[in-house]
Design brief:
The chain is mainly beta and about 220 residues long. The chain is built from no helices and 14 strands.
Length: about 220
């Protein structure tokens, strides 16, 4: 018997992972070889049996039929499992706080989110905002995190850190001034150091709401 047996494998199979798993259960018609003489046997020499859990990636399944005379023939097909499931990530709740005393910011710590995935190899990066423990400026900072799995699927989440400036500015006036009238006038020209307020944040403005500017002629009496 010099005639090789024959065997035909099924077509290649491509499927998505089972939800929550880094694999998929795949069934196929197991090939069985034929021969001109009785006594041929078919064995699987590579891959996984039908109904097995196939991992994400490509698995090559090879079958060999050998007849009673020792002639043999092989066939192969692939099972490709694609990871089409997005990873998951959950950010903390929005944070609102007051500025640190004397600063136009606040040091804020939070639990840095880390993404999860059905397969290993996912990485999480911060794409916007500031890391936990940073000095967050007065205002709202949006912090965004992205998790990318080994297959390139992504997911993002965001949360805000709002720092309110609740600290009053400061201002110090000069001491009270007492003087005599200028000769021949019912007043006196008085100069003083005009006070300018300070604040933990830029943008503070100082205005005079009562009295007279430095260098004015102050009338006899008390001007506040």
């Amino acid at each position: 018997d010099t005639e090789d047996p024959a065997i035909t494998c099924p077509a290649d199979i491509t499927t998505s992972n089972d939800t929550g798993d880094c694999s998929a259960v795949v069934t196929y018609t197991t090939p069985v070889g034929t021969d001109n003489c009785t006594g041929a046997t078919t064995t699987q020499t590579a891959g996984l049996p039908s109904g097995s859990t196939f991992p994400v990636g490509v698995t090559t399944n090879t079958f060999e039929v050998t007849d009673a005379a020792g002639n043999s023939t092989t066939c192969s097909f692939t099972v490709t499992v694609n990871d089409t499931e997005d990873p998951a990530i959950t950010c903390p709740a929005d944070i609102t706080t007051s500025n640190d005393t004397g600063d136009c910011s606040a040091v804020v710590t939070y639990t840095t989110p880390v993404g999860t995935d059905n397969c290993t190899g996912a990485t999480t990066t911060q794409t916007a905002g500031l890391p936990s423990g940073s000095a967050f400026p007065v205002g709202t900072t949006t912090n965004t995190f992205e998790v990318t799995d080994a297959a390139g699927n992504t997911a993002t989440c965001s949360f805000d850190v709002t720092v309110n400036d609740t600290e009053d500015p400061a201002i110090t006036c000069p001491a009270d001034i007492t003087t005599s009238n200028d000769t021949g006038d019912c007043s006196a020209v008085v100069t003083y150091t005009t006070p300018v307020g300070t604040d933990n944040c830029t943008g503070a403005t100082t205005t005079q709401t009562a009295g007279l500017p430095s260098g004015s002629a102050f009338p006899v009496g008390t001007t506040t």
